[in-house]
Design goal:
mainly alpha, 2 domains, 3 helices, 81% helix, 0% strand, rod-shaped
Length: 124
């Protein structure tokens, strides 16, 4: 082989090697960049979750501090236990979901009261 052919073959091998190395380097950079973007999005999601948890914690702490106040007790009695003052009139919309639930709970409680009353009558 001539020296010129050998030199051109070495140049070709060297060029292909450099092309391969540069290609691998570009793909590695792209992979690193895509991972960086994914991690940045995950970090933002976690920061949002932390902010929501802090807000919920603050609300729960405020609720805990006010748990013995008359306003809080009245709010719980009205909203969760469906209690009313004796002088109040309650209107129930039987077509709404909340009204249906309330009517069902009233029926169940009146049935239980009757069963309890019957049991005490039988025991006497």
């Amino acid at each position: 082989m001539s020296k010129k052919k050998k030199s051109s073959r070495l140049n070709l091998i060297w060029s292909l090697s450099m092309f391969f190395i540069i290609t691998v380097f570009v793909f590695a950079l792209y992979y690193q960049y895509s991972i960086h973007i994914t991690l940045r999005e995950q970090k933002q999601d976690v920061e949002v979750a932390i902010a929501e948890a802090k807000a919920e914690s603050a609300a729960l702490n405020k609720q805990y501090e006010n748990q013995n106040s008359p306003e809080f007790i009245e709010k719980i009695a009205r909203e969760e236990l469906n209690m009313v003052y004796p002088s109040e009139l309650v209107y129930i919309n039987k077509n709404s979901d909340e009204g249906k639930k309330l009517l069902n709970s009233i029926k169940r409680s009146s049935t239980k009261a009757k069963e309890t009353e019957n049991e005490t009558t039988y025991q006497e």
